[in-house]
């Protein structure tokens, strides 16, 4: 159950699940926007975010095909977050949204690995996704060790 915080007792993030519910059931969102029963159940910020997402998909909603990088408006939101967090510009055109870490790692390894002679450096200790994905793709895991005494950093010499 790696990567599943609820399996170790973390409560689900309600906001995201509520937004998703409104986007998956557009009738529920329409009811909320019209001041119906759903507007009593869902907070106003949830309704506003769901409306923004539905508008960003041209009304097609979630589950419809989108740009292969992800919905442009969502990439713009992610880019703004990264820029604010890191203090550096982030171009949404350089972002590729995936369905999670596994899909993202798999897509990158598809680009990097063409044969068993191709190696990818993997830090040790590591998240098991990396070695498992490498085994599936047929490349070679080139392990390097992180130094706990250096806040899990590394040196050029270690590489």
Explain this structure to me?
- This protein has helices at 14-24, 26-33, 38-41, 44-56, 72-86, 101-112, 128-137; strands at residues 119-124, 140-145.
- It folds into three domains: 13-64, Helix Hairpins; 66-97, no CATH class; 101-150, no CATH class.
- It is mainly alpha-helical and 159 residues long.
- Strands 1-2 form a two-stranded parallel ribbon.
Question: Which structural class is indicated by helix and strand composition?
Answer: mainly alpha
What overall geometry do the principal axes of the alpha carbons give? elongated
N-to-C series of helices and strands: HHHHHHEHE
What is the architecture of the largest domain at the second tier of CATH?
Answer: Orthogonal Bundle
Number of helices: 7
Separation of the first and last Cα atoms: 31 Å
Beta-strand proportion: 5-15%
Count the strands? 2
**Helix share, percent:** 40-55%
Note poorly predicted spans: none
CATH topology of the largest domain, anyone? Helix Hairpins
């Amino acid at each position: 159950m790696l990567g599943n915080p609820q399996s170790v007792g973390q409560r689900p993030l309600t906001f995201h699940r509520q937004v998703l519910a409104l986007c998956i059931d557009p009738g529920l969102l329409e009811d909320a926007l019209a001041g119906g029963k759903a507007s009593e159940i869902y907070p106003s910020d949830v309704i506003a975010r769901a409306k923004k997402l539905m508008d960003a998909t041209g009304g097609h909603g979630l589950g419809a095909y989108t740009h292969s990088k992800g919905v442009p408006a969502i990439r713009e939101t992610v880019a703004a977050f990264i820029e604010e967090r890191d203090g550096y510009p982030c171009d949404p055109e350089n972002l590729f949204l995936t369905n999670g870490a596994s899909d993202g790692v798999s897509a990158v390894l598809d680009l990097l690995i063409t044969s068993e002679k191709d190696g990818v450096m993997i830090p040790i200790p590591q998240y098991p996704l990396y070695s498992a994905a490498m085994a599936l793709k047929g490349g070679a895991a080139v392990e390097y060790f992180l130094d706990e005494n250096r806040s899990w950093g590394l040196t050029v010499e270690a590489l």
